[in-house]
Amino acid sequence: LFAVQKRGTGGIGRFFGPQRGVDPVAAIATHLRKFWDPRMRAAIVAHLDQGGEGLDEPVRQAVLRLKDGRS
User: Fold this and answer.
1) At what angle do helices 24-35 and 38-49 cross, to 10 degrees?
2) Between 41 and 7, the higher pLDDT residue
3) What is the mean pLDDT of the chain?
4) Is the four-CA dihedral 30, 64, 56, 25 of positive or negative sign?
5) How many other CB atoms sit within 10 Å of the CB of residue 1?
6) Where do the DSSP E strands lie in the chain?
7) Most exposed residue of 28, 47, 51, 64, measured as fewest CB within 10 angstroms of its CB?
8) Quick one: how many helices (H) and strands (E) in the chain?
């Protein structure tokens, strides 16, 4: 299940990254907060805490925002 989540975050990062006028990190964090189940968010934060292998930098920053309670 977590491998699917990791692939999903990569897709989210690729979607928001090239959009003009959008802060991709904020958009990714908002998406994760609104549409990911709390268990899924906890899993991605735990993955980041263990090094975050495979996470693109905007996704990594978005997960840090979630962890810190920022959007």
Assistant:
1) 130
2) 41
3) 81
4) positive
5) 8
6) none
7) 51
8) 4, 0
Biggest distance spanned by C-alpha atoms of the chain: 33
Structure-token pair, residue 44: 């991605």
CA distance 66 to 43: 12
CA 28 – CA 35 distance, rounded (Å): 10
Q: What are the tens digits of pLDDT across the range 39-68?
A: 999 999 999 999 998 888 999 999 999 999
CA distance 69 to 71: 7
- Residue 20: predicted pLDDT: 72
Q: Can you tell me the distance from the alpha carbon of 23 to that of 20, in angstroms, rounded to the nearest whole number?
A: 8
- Residue given tokens 């299940």 in the structure block: 1
